[in-house]
Design goal:
Elements: H1 2-46, H2 66-71, H3 80-111, H4 117-128, H5 136-145, H6 152-177, H7 180-188, H8 193-204, H9 206-222, H10 225-230, H11 238-243, H12 255-275, H13 277-285
Helix pairs in contact: 1-12, 3-6, 3-9, 4-6, 6-9, 7-8, 9-13
Length: 290
């Protein structure tokens, strides 16, 4: 009797074990389809002829490249190449400044001992949670008063104010997990504190730095609310330009051209993530196992 019960329980365990990988793959597939379905539909619509915009077929049908030509057709009033350059300038400058300031600020918060250190970190995190919509009117009045309205710095400075807290928090968590012995060994070998930071700490912090840089760049690249109010035609970013996109047909919403523009905007982010995906994973898991 006991042998029969043990055999039955063993069979049950084997069945449960064999179903576990299949269930995991099924769950991953559902999540993948749920997340990628909007992007897939955007790409399908971007390559679709205008006359078949609302064709419910979920495959590439009536393929054309006219939508991408419309995106870069300046005769229609679209200056998408300039908009791409504007977004690159704003997002790139925001990333570089946030990273440089964030590295030193995070190192100070993680390594140095001073009063109210946790309170300072709390204020930094609180700044990132402040609603951006509440800042639009003060920023508009301020930049208009000093003559910066519609300039790159009017877009970069607010973007830094939102991306810097994320950079500081992410890098602070990483620096706290880094063992002090590495820096002390460098100091014993004759390095100054600055040399130890530059030659030992920064190379070890590369995964977290890459991750922070990519997250900051993506956030600045996708920013819309502030850019829509503080930019002019010459400094308009791609997110703002897509919202006011002009199509080839007058008095008709250019859905396919907007999807083509969205595809062009998404390509740099996809390439960035694919190239540095190992760095991103390493940075996100840094410090998880001590």
């Amino acid at each position: 009797m006991s042998n029969a019960v043990s055999t039955a329980s063993e069979t049950t365990r084997r069945r449960a074990f064999s179903w576990a990988p299949a269930r995991t793959y099924l769950q991953a597939a559902v999540i993948l389809v749920w997340c990628l379905a909007p992007f897939y539909w955007m790409i399908v619509t971007a390559f679709r002829d205008v006359g078949f915009t609302f064709d419910p077929t979920p495959f590439f049908t009536h393929v054309t490249f006219d939508n991408f030509r419309t995106v870069f057709d300046e005769s229609l009033g679209n200056h998408f190449a300039q908009n791409l350059l504007n977004s690159l300038i704003v997002a790139g400058t925001t990333t570089v400044i946030s990273l440089v300031v964030g590295v030193f600020a995070a190192y100070a918060l993680a390594r140095l001992k001073f009063r109210f250190k946790e309170l300072v970190l709390g204020f930094i995190l609180g700044a990132s949670m402040f609603p951006a919509v509440a800042l639009i009117t003060p920023l508009f009045q301020f930049f208009t008063g000093i003559g910066w309205m519609g300039t790159y710095q009017a877009l970069i400075i607010p973007s830094i104010s939102f991306s810097l807290p994320l950079a500081v928090y992410t890098l602070t968590s990483f620096f706290r997990e880094m063992p002090w012995e590495l820096e002390e060994a460098a100091r014993i070998d004759g390095c100054t504190q600055g040399q130890a930071f530059r030659k030992v700490i920064l190379p070890l912090a590369a995964p977290a730095t890459f991750t922070t840089a990519i997250l900051t760049f993506i956030g600045a690249w996708n920013e819309f609310l502030i850019a829509s109010q503080l930019s002019v035609d010459s400094t308009k970013t791609v997110t703002v330009a897509i919202a006011s996109f002009a199509g080839a047909q007058p008095h008709q919403e250019p859905y396919t051209a907007v999807m083509a523009a969205g595809t062009v905007v998404t390509i740099p982010l996809v390439i960035l993530v694919l190239v540095f995906q190992r760095k991103i994973v390493a940075g996100l898991t840094a410090g998880a196992v001590k």
